[in-house]
Every structure is written in C-alpha cells, then in structure tokens.
Design brief:
Elements (H helix, E strand, L loop, with lengths): L1 E9 L3 H10 L5 E4 L16 E2 L8 H11 L6 H21 L24 E2 L5 H14 L4 E4 L2 E6 L2 H4 L2 H5 L7 E6 L4 E12 L20 H9 L3 E2 L4 E8 L12 H4 L3 E3 L19 H15 L4 E4 L5 H7 L1 H9 L9 E10 L2 E3 L11 E3 L4 E2 L11 H22 L19 H21 L6 H23 L5 H22 L17 H4 L4 E2 L5
Parallel strand pairs: 1-2, 1-8, 2-5, 8-15, 14-16
Antiparallel strand pairs: 3-4, 6-7, 7-8, 9-14, 9-17, 10-13, 11-12, 12-13
Length: 536
C-alpha cells in the first residue's frame, strides 16, 4: 500500500505539529507518529519557552547567555535568528488558545532558569508542554489538508539505495522521496511518498538507563538519517538534567529547573548548599555544571541522592506555581512545602543530531529536520534551559517556508519506488534473546557514557555496542519487521554514534567531560564532531 502527499511530517511534538500546520497552507500533508499524537517529549516539558519580553531584557542578552552556555560551539547567526523570531511565534500560540500564566497586570509571568541572566521563560505554571501540545493538536485536527496517521512507526527514509543498484546509485546525488512506515496495528509496512519530508522525531533519551524522556524517544530520525547518508553532528553532547525525583517508583520524574529559579536550593543530606563550590551562579548555574557537581558530591559522599529545598518559600505560592510537581511528589509521600525533594540527574536532551542549515535543510535533497532530532547550531555543546521549545518553533517555521518553496520550484518525477519486501520469519525464542540487548545498551551507556567519561570506559562501551548492533542488524534482516525491532535497531545505532563522537573529542567541553582530557582545547576542537555513513 502507498500514500502520496506533497509533504510528509514524521513526529508529533511541538516541531512536527507546528510544521504540519504551516505546510498545510501550501499543499497536502501526511503527519505520522508512532503512538498517539500527544505522546512526545513536548508533552512532558514543564518549564516553558525562553523569549525576550521583560523590559530589562534584550535580544543581545539572550543571545549572549545562549552562546555562553554553548561553550564555543553555538552558531551566532542561528542563535540570533531563533532569539529574534521567538516573540511572534509565542504570540501565535496565544492565538491558538494556549493560556500562558500572566501577572496581575496581564503581562507574561516570566520565570528564570539556570544560565539565564534575566527572567525570560514564558510558561503555563509547570505544565507548559502539555498545554502547548494540546492547542497544536486541536488546530491540526481542524485542518483539512492534514491527514493523520497515529501508531505508524517510521522504518527508513526512501532514498537512492532503495531504488537503484549500488552502481547506479553512486552516480546520483542523494534525494529523499518519503519513508517506509509500519502501521503498527495492522502490521503492514506502507510506502509514504512525498515531494518533501520533514523529520521531527525528537531525541534519543531512551538510550540511557535513567532518562526524563518518554518511551518514544528512541532516536529514530537520527538513526534513519545516518543510514541514509546524512551528516550527524555533536552526538557526544547529551544533556543530563540535574534534578529528577529520586524514588524507586517515580520513573525519573522531572523536577523543573524553574523550581530553582523560584528560589530552590540544592543541598546535601545535611542541608548544606554545595553547587557554589563549583560555579558562582550556584544552583542556577548551567545544567552541565550542576549535573557534574551533583555527580561529584554523590561520589564523594557515597549517598544515593542530593536534595532540592524550597521549604523556605511560601507554601501557597509553591502549590500555585508548581501544581503538577506538588501533586506528583505528594503521591510519593513527599510534601515539598515542608521537606526537601530527593533528586538525581538523568539523561534529558540531545544537543546533537541531523545536521541542518538555517533553512532546516539536511544534505539530502528533499529532507528537512526540526526539533531535537536536528543539530542546528543553536545549542552548541550545552543547551540553555527552555531554549528547546523556542528552537523547535522557529525551525518548524523555517522548514515549512523552505520545504514549500522547494516543492513549488519544480515538477517532481519520482523514480519507480518498490513496495516493502516483508518476507521474513519470526522466531519468538530468538526475539527473547535479542530483546535483552536493550537493557544491556541502557546499562552500558549509563555506566560508561554518562556525565563523566574516560577513554577506557568509552572503548569498552564501543566494543560491546558494535557487537550488539551487529546481532540486532542480523536479526532485523531475517525477520518480519515490528515496532520493537525498529526501535531497538535505532537505539543501537544512536548508542554507537554517541560513543564514537565522544571518542573523537579529546577534550572536555560543555556536556562532554572526560577524565583523560579534563580541559577545553580551542586550538584543536573548536568545531563540530561530524559523522557520516554513505550507504550507496
């Protein structure tokens, strides 16, 4: 079976939904997502969207804060573009019905988070992502030129290596004509053909044992693009959020950075602040600094967690500003108004991804990317808090503008694209063996490729992950495709990309810290880490 449209958008977070809405003004859109529309990282984003609205703030201050956090790898022209476009796109969300929290005078109630020199985070209390996504989903469902495909898992991008022989393919440039996508419920692989494809598949947090990301964050877009031959950059820069709830049943529940901006202090079991020893901004230092400070304190003390203390703040203010966190902690018998919150770091956000230019274009013709799947140059070596939703909004618009121009620019003649070859056998006993690889990948990445790394740890991880990836690829090629094997295949690919990138960067910068090279080296490594695999 096939479905043909002008545009194919893969992913239904803030980037994918926003891109689909804007593309629908220029043609037909197929929007696919592997779970329900609402299941994405966006839904769980508590903090908000960073933008310049405070009278004492300025674009220049926001730009400089972002570049400072990025540790020398941020692209200033990209940062300026994103920062300067933010206000208008937030007002568009207002018009879609997002009820951002406001002051008594009607202005946005701006929060402050780590690394920001001013209050500039527009939010809906502590459930911003949920409300933004709900408004976008409502708008998408009311748009007739968007066809929705829930429970459809992307397998691979359709490029020359699916269409031509290896000899023929080498003589052509790389083009993307859509994707092969699994209808999970009907267990059929469909051929989605499109003049332009937009990847908005999100991040890869599930590659780690402890993560704030939902189960869908398996690095699908990154892995598919790598297999297709696109450039992948800066995968070593995985951001670990410093504060997730430490409780055996809490599943790494995120404790928003806005709680520290509100006045929360990170303390040890004796109630003593400690981040000030590592950075003058203390608990509001950039995330990489805070995460490493917590990691260092835990290793020195042997404790399992540190604590985030807001008990000195007014109880009613806490409940009003952070209702989701208050109620969630209460379910675990923790009253955050009267006792500190036990917290630990967890994998949170990938600053690397598919390389795109300012227009959202990858180096495969017809393929665009926005949101966490992409590497735009906005975040550099470390993302500033609440810049992710901002970047997703701006690059969704860029992708829509330039993908629509691309489609209007010429007549498209698709090559004869074959249907999916679904021959294969499925051995349930063998799947049990392969499925164990998932936990081994997560354990390896957490133990060896975490907040603090070393050559020895990275080389051990790479040796084992290469073997696991080989096992998974062999299994994938001789079995009927399922959602589980698609995700496992992608996680193994992304894990290897992260480890290879970390080994290539022989310095410590931003989110990448190695004990073998503890200092930053601008002479040799003031550049992106690029990995590319040609499949044709």
């Amino acid at each position: 079976m096939s479905f043909e449209s002008d545009f194919l958008v893969i992913g239904s977070g803030i980037a994918g939904l926003s891109a689909a809405l804007k593309l629908a003004k220029h043609g037909s859109v197929a929007l696919t997502t592997k779970k329900e529309l609402s299941e994405s990282n966006t839904r769980y984003a508590q903090c908000g969207i960073a933008s310049v609205f405070h009278p004492r703030d300025s674009f220049e201050q926001h730009v400089q804060d972002t570049l400072q956090a990025g540790a020398g790898l941020g692209r200033e022209e990209v940062v300026r573009m994103v920062v300067e476009h933010g206000q208008g796109l937030i007002r568009e969300l207002d018009q879609l019905g997002v009820e951002f929290t406001r002051t008594s005078s009607g202005d946005y109630d701006l929060g402050r988070e780590g690394g920001h020199g001013q209050k500039r985070v527009v939010h809906v209390k502590d459930h911003t992502g949920h409300d933004v996504e709900a408004a976008l989903i409502d708008a998408v469902k009311r748009t007739p030129d968007i066809t929705l495909f829930e429970h459809h898992a992307a397998i691979d991008l359709i490029t020359e290596h699916h269409v031509f022989t290896p000899t023929q393919a080498r003589e052509t440039s790389l083009n993307c004509w859509g994707a092969y996508i699994l209808d999970v419920r009907k267990k059929k692989v469909l051929r989605f053909i499109a003049k332009a494809t937009v990847l908005a598949t999100g991040g890869a947090g599930q590659v780690y044992l402890h993560t704030t990301n939902p189960g869908v964050a398996t690095g699908d877009g990154m892995a598919m693009s790598y297999r297709a031959g696109a450039a992948i950059a800066n995968m070593e820069f995985m951001q670990f959020h410093p504060t997730t709830l430490y409780h055996p049943d809490a599943d790494s529940f995120l404790i928003t950075e806005a709680l520290r901006g509100f006045g929360g202090r990170l303390v040890n079991k004796n109630g003593e602040p400690f981040v000030e020893k590592y950075h003058p901004m203390g608990s509001l230092a950039p995330r990489d600094v805070v995460a490493r400070a917590i990691d260092a304190e835990l290793k020195k003390s042997g404790e399992r967690c540190v604590y985030l203390d807001v008990t000195h703040k007014d109880a009613d203010e806490i409940k009003n500003r952070f209702p989701v966190i208050y109620e969630t902690c209460k379910r675990y018998k923790i009253d955050i108004t009267s006792e500190p919150i036990p917290v630990v770091p967890a994998a949170h956000y990938s600053c690397g991804g598919v390389v795109v230019d300012k227009q959202g274009r990858t180096d495969i013709t017809g393929l665009y990317a926005c949101g966490e799947v992409s590497c735009t140059g906005m975040h550099g070596a470390n993302r500033l808090a609440s810049n992710s939703l901002l970047e997703a909004l701006v690059y969704a618009e860029q992708c829509a503008v330039f993908a629509s121009e691309f489609v209007k620019s010429g007549t498209f003649h698709f090559p004869p694209i074959p249907l999916w070859d679904d021959e294969g056998t499925f051995n349930s006993e063998e799947w049990v063996l392969i499925s164990h690889d998932l936990m081994e990948i997560k354990d390896l990445m957490w133990d060896y490729v975490g907040i603090v790394r070393s050559n020895l740890r990275l080389e051990r991880a790479l040796s084992r992950i290469r073997l696991i990836r080989h096992e998974i690829e062999n299994f994938y090629r001789r079995t009927t495709v399922t959602e589980g094997i698609v995700e496992l295949r992608n996680l193994a690919t992304v894990a290897q990309l992260i480890v290879r990138s970390a080994l290539m960067r022989k310095e410590s910068r931003g989110l990448h810290y190695t004990t073998d090279y503890p200092r930053r080296n601008d002479d040799e490594y003031l550049q992106d880490t690029i990995i590319r695999q040609r499949m044709i």
